[in-house]
Amino acid sequence: MSYNILSQDLLEDNSHLYKHCRRPVLHWSFRFPNILKEIKHFDADVLCLQEVQEDHYGTEIRPSLESLGYHCEYKMRTGRKPDGCAICFKHSKFSLLSVNPVEFYRRDVPLLDRDNVGLVLLLQPKIPSAASPAICVANTHLLYNPRRGDIKLTQLAMLLAEISSVAHQKDGSFCPIVMCGDFNSVPGSPLYSFIKEGKLNYEGLAIGKVSGQEQSSRGQRILSIPIWPPNLGISQNCVYEVQQVPKVEKPDGDLTQPELDKTEVLVTAEKLSSNLQHHFSLSSVYSHYLPDTGIPEVTTCHSRSAVTVDYIFYSAEKEGVAEQPGAEVALVGGLKLLARLSLLTEQDLWTVNGLPNENNSSDHLPLLAKFRLEL
């Protein structure tokens, strides 16, 4: 399950978004029992929660989830922000191999001055067969600001680099990956397409167009090439760069001067490419449109907007690959999507007075997927 549960502090700081709501449904004392009831009802093995407020996490959320059999890991936002991301899993189903928090704020990188975070866990399924691969589960809440697509893409690259590092197996392949969260980007946007396609040429792209949250991008800067500075230590392939230390041991040297010059030129050309890539094959659990009508699904709905910004992405063989004879072996250790909880349309939600309401106590809907792990 991926669920942005709406931090109470953020609700109160942005009360203009909830003018449509009856006052009582906005109180935490009303909302939390409802959210807990939903979590109990759906009974997921793994929860990825966003906007988990630190004080509520300590006093209510974590104790309640532990009593339901979950082990909880939490990463608070930096800069004294009151909320963060949690990944909770049933300890009857998984054991914890590693916990890897990601902070998107970097004092040494002026671009990265926002306090968003991510969390990446490596879990080992508890199954009788000893051959089960680990599963990498990532959770994040990217920057909201629709006009700062440069920051959003860099935050995403940092999360992908950490996933690469955590999910990397001895044989060079990746273990199965599930990447959840509130990406503050809509389906079909450049950021969304980058996640799904594994590549993005961002040359000439306005920074306000990256997430697709707003239509107009008049007078906006276009993305610089490269988007983030080299000292971030993340390549255009969204992996951690091995810092190249120049070799100076041998006085005669292995390379002649002209060869060295040529190497320099190649490095510079690579750095100035406007192509981003990542090496995962990620699919979205949801298709974002109702099959019969083509009406958009939404994952969040309040006074200002009703859109999809929450996702569950998972590593899967792309359709068409498995059709080729003999390609079935490629799915070994993959995730097969078996079922998902239906989302609703904006119209559906306004018939119950939008979100939050008497029954749904966040301004987001929970996303829920059931997978089979191919061994």
From TrEMBL:
<dbReference type="GO" id="GO:0070935">
    <property type="term" value="P:3'-UTR-mediated mRNA stabilization"/>
</dbReference>
<dbReference type="InterPro" id="IPR050410">
    <property type="entry name" value="CCR4/nocturin_mRNA_transcr"/>
</dbReference>
<dbReference type="InterPro" id="IPR036691">
    <property type="entry name" value="Endo/exonu/phosph_ase_sf"/>
</dbReference>
<dbReference type="GO" id="GO:0003730">
    <property type="term" value="F:mRNA 3'-UTR binding"/>
</dbReference>
<dbReference type="GO" id="GO:0000175">
    <property type="term" value="F:3'-5'-RNA exonuclease activity"/>
</dbReference>
<protein>
    <submittedName>
        <fullName>Angel homolog 2</fullName>
    </submittedName>
</protein>
<feature type="domain" description="Endonuclease/exonuclease/phosphatase">
    <location>
        <begin position="1"/>
        <end position="316"/>
    </location>
</feature>
<dbReference type="Pfam" id="PF03372">
    <property type="entry name" value="Exo_endo_phos"/>
</dbReference>
<dbReference type="InterPro" id="IPR005135">
    <property type="entry name" value="Endo/exonuclease/phosphatase"/>
</dbReference>
